Amino acid sequence: MNDTGSVARANVLLASGHTAQAIETIETAAAAGDPDASFTLAVWLLAGNPLPRDLARARIVLRRCVEMGHADAALMEVALVATGSGGPSDWRAAHGLLEAVAGDPVAANQLALLALMDLDEDGRPTRVPVGERLSESPDVVRFPGLLSPAECQYVAMTAQDVLEPAVVIDPRTGKMVSHPIRTSLGAVIGPARENLVVRAINARLAAVSNTAIEQGEPLAVLRYAPGQQYRAHLDSIDNAPNQRIKTVLVYLNEGFRGGETRFTANGLNVSPRGGDAILFSNALADGSPDRRSEHAGLPVIQGVKWLATRWIRQRPYNPWNPG
Q1: Domain Fe2OG dioxygenase spans what residues (predicted)?
Q2: Contact call for residues 83 and 191 (beta carbons, < 8 A)
Q3: What domains are defined for the chain?
Q4: Is 253 in a helix, a strand, or coil?
Q5: Which residue in 306, 243, 249 sits closest to 134, CA to CA?
Q6: Residue 154's closest CA among 114, 126, 99, 184?
Q7: pLDDT tens sequence across 257-304
Q8: Which of the residues 66, 103, 198, 305 could staple to 259 if both were Cys, CB 3.0 to 4.6 A apart?
Q9: Is the C-alpha dihedral spanning 259, 261, 265, 268 positive or negative?
Q10: pLDDT in tens, 242-258
């Protein structure tokens, strides 16, 4: 076999079922100072495959990788520091790490967007907008223009390269599965991709919902083409030990037809407007599903609809161990 690099050799070994040899190849190359092997090792440690998940070690490996000048490792390290993956959450430290690689165009773009946000020193919004109540039962509140056009575009672009057929939670197993109820494409911006722009947006969604940022699931982004929809459903989960108590939907664009959010209990139709968000409750005081929150994303008739969703749990949610 030609020498095509340690990462390529490891991938060939993995594909042929030689997992132990693949791990040894990457570990040896990383120890010898190969930045690509080090980055691959960190990704494996985060993914928990083919190595057991070890967030703290992944952070150590990424730091060495950054010191070797690996740009992707630097951006991933920022996300992990911001989200508290493998160590304490520290916005200021993460912002400092991002500034240290400001020469990278991706980092520069993130810093430019952050400079336009009204944030305190810990990345939280300095002002919390007041919403307008659309319905008492179900409890639905709209926040006009919660995200700027630039922020909406950024969220959509961040998710675009990882879109795949959207999934739902199977109530019997708790696993994410495909289902004909949901025909859009979707992506989740997990903690290794939750850069400071996304983190700041999640902090804003926590503020308008009067919850802690740690209660939110990773931001999910959905793309609906003509004919695609999300049929009537509940966001709450039957018998969940950590219930989804609230949902924030953010409409990322406009200029399409259809795609309204309809609440079936009272027939409320919310027409999407780019940057607007709606907040609604999913659970009753005892944590059981609130059937009045049943809603649907109506079919898109013309154009493409982009939507971001943040499901908020009753207690802090660990994206690395959802169970």
Answers
A1: 215-319
A2: yes
A3: 6-99 (1.25.40.10), 132-313 (2.60.120.620)
A4: coil
A5: 249
A6: 114
A7: 999 999 999 999 999 999 999 999 999 999 999 999 999 999 999 999
A8: 305
A9: negative
A10: 999 999 999 999 999 99
